[in-house]
Amino acid sequence: MTLLTKIPLLRHSLRGKVTLGYYAVAAAILVASLFFVGELRTLEERVVLGQRATDLFDSVLEIRRFERNYFLYHQQHDLEENNRYIKLTQRFLNDNQAAFLAIVSLDRQEQLQALLNEYQYQISALPTANQKQLLLLEPRVRSLGKEVVNIAEDMATLERRQIQSTLVAFRNLLLGVILGMALLIVALGRALSQRVVRPLQAIEDSVAAIKANHRGTLAPPSDDREIISIIAAFNHMLKELDLRQKSLMRSERLASLGTMLSGVAHELNNPLSNISTSCQILQEEVGESEPETQKMYLGQIDQQTERARVIVRSLLDFSREKAFKKNPVMLRPLVQQTVGFVRGQVSAKSVVQLSISETLSVPADAQRLQQVFVNLISNALEGLGADGQIVISAQTLVVSEPPVGTALGSGCDFEGEVVEIRVADNGPGIAPEILPRIFDPFFTTKEVGHGMGLGLFVVYEIIEEHGGCIAVQSLPGQGATFCIRLPLQEDIDSAAMLDSQGAQS
Ligand code: ADP
Fold first, then answer.
1. Which residues constitute the domain of residue 22?
2. Residue 34 falls within a domain, yes or no?
């Protein structure tokens, strides 16, 4: 597979994007290098040309040197050398005519050739000239020689200047390309980091949102293969966690059912014995009592049967697995019933006091709220001594600060109207070192077989589901007080919002 066919695949993976970035930088460096190699070649050609212009100038100077020697010493040898250099220069000019066009025009070269030819002609006449002719020839040769030198010098100077300006242009170009490359690398780096970091940041934000709300799933923020597989693995993990949590909740509810059964048996005992008594009286008085009296006993039997039915229905309601749903719940009857259910554990002298208004209602899931009370009251009862006391109070409050003590839950910072429920006992209390851990799953101080360590964890989960807050205050030997706050009105139904997010993704 070639790189070009790979590009669409690379664009859909983080590794691919980084690789593409590297390729882009490598390609830019390659193009810049090729460009500079080309520029260096041009520079090299200019230097060679400059060397030729200098050689031409040196050769012309040699012509003049031997001309001067000849005028001084009249040696045939100097004239021969002068002639040799003239020929050399003429050949040199002919051979490099095209190259010298980069310095001077063809006209100027032809002018130099013509001057050289003229110079050669004049100087060759010197040995055979008489004194009078010499007087005319000598200044003519000198002046022609001077002109030839001037043109050759011009050519050398011009070429030197051109080399200099080419060098300056090359330097500026080099700086420009380095700057351009730096900008390109920075831009590529930014683009890469945005494409790679942005999805990671989006995942981080979604994970934080899920952590805060304990619900929902992640939606892939980009179509990169790695991100999609991380999100799939994460969502799978969330689903597994959710299933495990539900199964923990189920086992905790079953454990609570076990706790409640003895209380329920006790609760059922009263109506059953009332029914039995009424039946016995009716049996004894068959045909003797007034119809009104019979009606009264039958009414009592009906009432007590209904009471037993309510108890059995509540137990069934508690045991059934239901989806979370908030409804207005009358608090006092719920707490009263729960205390009745867990009564089996209450020692004869322990007292459970309720300070809850008959009319107080709270928006909650009744089944889950009952689970909260079962767990809190059971925990309180378990530690109570002979003269133990539990006070359960509730009231509506407008709050602006979190409750005092070790507080947990997304609703702890809620400001506004809440129902605050307190379950306080005068039992052994909780040691400060274990206080921060009591809401952790499987944390227990009880002996093996006496506690799973899930009671308070489930309480916290339920309060969290309600968008509420739970706090505990306790000192060893001075009992423990659990404070629950349930908001009365919620601006946004966070659960519904998360569900809709999950549906969108
Ligand atoms: P479990 O009851 O199975 O131990 P919980 O999560 O209900 O699990 O409680 C965790 C621990 O918190 C208990 O083992 C106990 O040490 C402590 N605890 C909870 N409630 C009270 C309380 N009212 N008084 C004293 N300790 C408590």
1. 3-198
2. yes
